[in-house]
Specification:
Largest sheet: 7 strands, mixed
Shape: elongated
Helix content: 25-40%
Radius of gyration: 35 Å
Number of strands: 30
Length: about 850
């Protein structure tokens, strides 16, 4: 039965009321039994990182996704709308370290029933020396405990926001199903030759002691200084270079200048010796050298930055890496440093941090007279791990890679084509994808030297000397596996770590190596073929623009490798949230706003309205101190409740009642136009236009039409005129509730429940009748005249309810059809109509008011 209409409708409490109702009745449950491939609308939902709290940017982009889900559901589609949690990887580990005051030490034994020293992070330190070491297994258990708690809080917030997710379709990227999918895909990458190991220069975060992929880089402007150093030619002349990294002088393998730089052409093919260390290095030419940077000639070190890697690889130079995994200068000098004095100089920097080594190297250069002048301060861009606090170093390591098109022209061309196969909204976001694919410089490094993640599913056979040899892989039927604790196939546990035995891989996969498979994980790839065929390729990927290079690209890559298709038909890309100073809001900038307080203070419909007001790809400004758009949204939701309550105070006309008045017909004709515009906008993923169009009509309906026909609805005219007004009012509310349902789901569900025993969110989206008459323009003319009547009364300092003896209304002939309603709302006894091109109200004579009784 419909719910009784409350005496005073209010937004407060609607989230709990309807959230519980939707869950209990399975309103948003995916009806697999009746679903067909043609009718399924499947959504590849972003799994938020379970490492703390959600921020307002999450609410922004996830609302955009939910708007489309709700619209498509009302269009009769079977909605597959899962929710995942990205709960493995470095962000989770970092949160666990800070929350519990611990760090992982794999050499320690497992402690049963371990209790961490802290809980909640109070008094904790981010310094490793201040954190209590625990075993790998204990550390993983703490990660699992905390992520489960975080995920519960995330789910409660998503439910409060009103995401129409099917909560029975949820997964964790650390769960067995996700691990099985990630490991299966990796094994197939190996089988097809797409995954391989290599010793290579590796971007390395010295704080977390892990490799970092190209997609995880972030540029930051940092202070530095140019040091002018003298290299020596055989004839005794010097060649001056300028460098910001004198501490890498011992790793210098060449000098490089642009091939067109006349200053250095005569040096190409000759050798010079390095200052302090006296190592002979060649002078080479390369087009990446910048003529106008520094002295125009630079030293190539292994490795100071990513350009050094390019030069080293393309010019086939030796590797003299001197920075270790701990970010300190390694103890052993490169073989090229041969003289006793050079070895002594190297010993002075060995074991030091990069910062300390730089200071010592400057001291040595000044003492030798080979540093020219003082250092010149500059500011330049330095690469950081997006989660890190210190500049990245580049060291040589043995890592796992997956081919991504950087070195395979055919794969790159196919990935670019897959980008063209996807409908990007807005379309210009496709360029960001194409630029990323075109700018890749190396294959995807997927191994991480961390602990909480999906294990790389391989072991290594050990030879008679205990050296790693053949790679051993499990069968897909054995997945998921953890080689650190599971025994390699064909061996027993006693053979672990001994010559002739085996050793398990201890590295884990980059978290994107799992998240890139969200369509496969959620869709039951290889475990539930029937479901996978129903949902894949997906209808929609909705996400932020900042992860095009990571999540979007890697998902396209994995779908291409596994299935040879794009993973979805459409990609909706949300813009950024910026603060009042137009700066992007992010955790790293410290200007993020958590949404819980906003939802509690203003209501979920109000916050959803704010998010829905911005088109995809457009940045939205947010000021938590003065959230104007949220307040407007709250006002709208309240008005929907109150306007509907007023309309429903009129009894439903009899079944044979019809629309007999021109003004009523024009209102419904205009509403049909709004339905058509909103529908087309939603079909084009332009939710903001759908909202704007619907909202504009709604305020005209409330402020003008409802006031115009109020007297007629109360029965001031004929019975037919009254029925026509009430029927129009109720019809308009019925349609408006469905148009607003994706945006303000709680208020619309509340109102819908007063007259229906089903949910508005499973009701049919309104459709403009075929052949319906177009608006005549009567409604805007009458609205304009009403404004003039109101203004005249206001100018006369009279109440809007003041009766009017007579008035003259001028306007096009069409306006005369609305005179009766204007006369009623304006309380005008006699109206004179004059045909005119423009609308005006004149010669208003207010009725004399009886004098107030004297007390």
């Amino acid at each position: 039965m419909p719910n009784p209409m409350p005496e005073k409708p209010a937004l407060e409490g609607l989230e709990d009321k309807w959230g519980t109702s939707w869950e209990d009745s399975g309103t948003y449950r995916f009806d697999r039994a009746s679903a067909t491939r043609e009718n399924v609308f499947s959504i590849d939902t972003p799994p938020p990182t379970a490492s703390g709290s959600l921020h307002i940017g999450h609410v922004f982009s996830y609302t955009h996704m939910d708007l489309i889900a709700r619209y498509q559901r009302m269009q009769g589609r079977d909605i597959f709308y899962p929710m995942g949690w990205d709960d493995n990887g470095l962000p989770t580990e970092r949160r666990v370290q800070n929350y519990y005051g611990v760090r992982c030490d794999p050499s320690l034994p497992y402690v049963e029933g371990y209790l961490p020293p802290l809980e909640g992070g109070e008094g904790s330190s981010s310094k490793a020396a201040d954190q209590v070491p625990v075993s790998r297994r204990n550390f993983i258990e703490l990660c699992e405990t905390l992520t489960a708690e975080d995920e519960l809080q995330f789910e409660l917030l998503w439910r409060q926001l009103g995401l129409s997710v099917d909560w029975t379709q949820s997964y964790r990227t650390i769960g067995d199903d996700a691990q099985r999918a990630a490991q299966r895909a990796f094994l197939r990458n190996i089988e097809r030759g797409e995954a391989y190991q290599a010793d290579a220069p590796t971007l390395w975060d010295v704080t977390f002691r892990t490799a970092v992929a190209q997609a995880e880089l972030e540029d930051k402007e940092m202070p530095a200084a140019y040091h002018r150093l003298a290299f020596h030619k055989a004839d005794g002349e010097d060649v001056h270079i300028e460098t910001t990294r004198p501490e890498l002088l011992a790793a210098c393998v060449a000098l490089v200048a642009h091939p067109d730089d006349d200053r250095y052409k005569h040096l190409f093919g000759t050798n010079v010796t390095t200052p302090v260390f006296g190592v002979e290095v060649p002078v080479v030419a390369h087009h990446l050298a910048q003529i106008d940077k520094g002295s125009g000639i630079a030293m190539i070190c292994t490795f100071g930055d990513v350009t050094d890697v390019v030069w080293w690889r393309e010019l086939d130079l030796p590797n003299r890496t001197i920075i270790g995994a701990d970010g300190r200068i390694v103890a052993d000098a490169p073989e090229a440093i041969a003289t006793e004095s050079a070895k002594a100089a190297y010993a002075e920097i060995a074991g030091k941090t990069v910062f300390s080594a730089k200071a010592k190297m400057v001291e040595l250069l000044k003492a030798s007279g080979e540093m020219i002048g003082d250092a010149k301060p500059i500011t330049h861009s330095v690469k950081f791990f997006e989660k890190g606090d210190k500049p990245l170093e580049i060291i040589s390591t043995h890592q796992w890679y997956i081919a991504n098109g950087a070195r395979d022209a055919d794969l790159k061309a196919r990935l670019l084509q897959r980008g063209k196969d996807v409908n990007f909204v807005p379309d210009f976001m496709r360029v960001r994808y194409e630029n990323w694919v075109g700018g890749l410089t190396g294959d995807w490094l997927i191994s991480r030297q961390r602990f909480f993640g999906v294990p790389i599913p391989v072991w290594y056979e050990l030879d008679a000397e205990g050296e790693k040899g053949r790679v051993i892989v499990p069968t897909e039927a054995d997945l998921p596996v953890d080689p650190a604790s599971h025994t390699a196939p064909g061996f027993d546990e006693s053979q672990r770590g001994v010559p002739g035995g085996f050793v398990g891989e201890v590295d884990i996969m980059d978290t994107w190596a799992t998240s890139s498979l969200t369509p496969q994980i959620a869709g039951g790839w290889e475990t539930d073929p029937e479901l996978f065929d129903l949902v894949f390729p997906y209808s929609l990927r909705s996400q932020g623009q900042d992860i095009i290079r990571t999540w979007l690209f890697s998902t396209v890559l994995r779908a291409e490798q596994e299935s040879g298709v794009a993973p979805w038909k459409n990609a909706g890309i949300s813009g950024f949230i910026v603060d009042p100073d137009r700066k992007k809001m992010s955790k790293s900038k410290g200007n993020v706003v958590t949404p819980k307080g906003m939802l509690d203070d203003h209501g979920s419909d109000a916050v959803r309205y704010w998010a829905a007001s911005s088109r995809l790809g457009t940045d939205a400004s947010f000021d938590p101190q003065n959230p104007k758009q949220i307040k407007i949204g709250r006002r709208l939701a309240i008005k929907v409740l109150n306007a509907a309550k007023f309309v429903y105070s009129f009894e439903q006309p009899l079944a044979d009642a019809g629309i007999t008045e021109e003004l009523d017909a024009d209102l419904l004709a205009e509403l049909n136009r709004v339905v058509a515009v909103a529908t087309r906008a939603f079909d084009e993923f332009d939710h903001a236009k759908a909202l704007e169009t619907t909202e504009h009509f709604f305020w005209v309906f409330c402020d003008d039409y409802l006031e115009l026909v109020k007297e007629r609805a109360y029965g001031s005219a004929t019975a037919e005129g009254q029925a026509s007004a009430v029927l129009t009012l109720r019809t308009a509310v019925n349609v408006l509730l469905r148009l607003f349902a994706p945006f303000i789901p709680f208020a619309t569900e509340e109102v819908w429940s007063w007259t229906h025993d089903t949910s508005v969110h499973t009701a049919a989206w309104p459709v403009a009748p075929e052949g319906a008459p177009a608006p005549t323009g009567l409604l805007p003319l009458v609205s304009e005249a009403l404004i003039s009547i109101r203004r005249a009364k206001t100018d006369a300092k009279a109440s809007q309810k003041s009766p009017v003896t007579s008035a003259t209304i001028s306007g096009p002939a069409l306006l005369e059809l609305g005179l009766e309603d204007l006369q009623g709302v304006g309380r005008i006894e006699t109206v004179t109509f004059i045909e005119s091109d423009t609308v005006s109200v004149s010669d208003i004579v207010l009725a004399e008011q009886p004098e107030a009784s004297q007390v």
